[in-house]
Amino acid sequence: MLTKRIIPCLDIKDGRTVKGVKFVGLRDAGDPVELAQRYTEEGADELVFLDITATKEKRRTLVHLVEEIAAHINIPFTVGGGIKSVDEIEEILKAGADKVSLNSAIVRDPELISRASDAFGSQAVVAAVDAKRVGDHWEVFVKGGSEATGLDALDWIKKTEHLGSGEILLTSMDRDGTKSGFDNELLKIVNETVTIPVIASGGAGTIQHCVDAVNIGNADAVLAASIFHFREIEISDLKKKMAESGIDVRLLTT
Fold first, then answer.
1. Which of 151, 206, 211, 251 is spaced 20 to 30 Å from 115 by Cα?
2. Ordered DSSP codes for 104-162
3. pLDDT for 57-71, tens place per residue?
4. Is pTM beyond 0.70 here?
């Protein structure tokens, strides 16, 4: 059985870590380099960096900040936001990222997944999907959750796997920042649909929420932001409780 991962997420705006609710109402959460270093020391398995306004502002990801963070951590590092070409992916990977997270760009140009996977390997390509319930299905949104695409989330996720993505970063827009728990119904359906790992995002508020995302939603990893940024839950405590619940996690050795 593969070890389940705990992944703090740094949502970046104007060079600072921020966090909102359902993608709006952003508030400052600290210096991203300091947070990244702290999470590495506390036993995070991976780190995700999302430049959340890059696409909307039609600019590239903050490469210098990626380089600075990469210099201070020794865990796998995923970077997303405003990345729209193989050349830009290469630049981000050379800056120190291990993977890139692609969202708006692959909706516009799905074949970018195949080109990136062919160039760098599928393990370096994460398909990020921001999904919102619309009627009896989930729809894909882009540009930081501000624009509906009309795409059915399940159909789109299957397509990204077929094109070569190595992992899905699945964010429930309905749950994002609410601390009301992950959308385990969505997670379970997606995990029954694809064979690649699925990262649960959107809704973490308690340790039990994270346990349920794995045990009910079948998530391969749990991503969270504010509960870690504001020290509402310590990563070590979360991993200890997950292990007590029978979930295989990597524990820090002293």
1. 151
2. HHHHH-THHHHHHHHHH-GGGEEEEEEEEEETTEEEEEETTTTEEEEEEHHHHHHHHHH
3. 555 667 888 999 999
4. yes
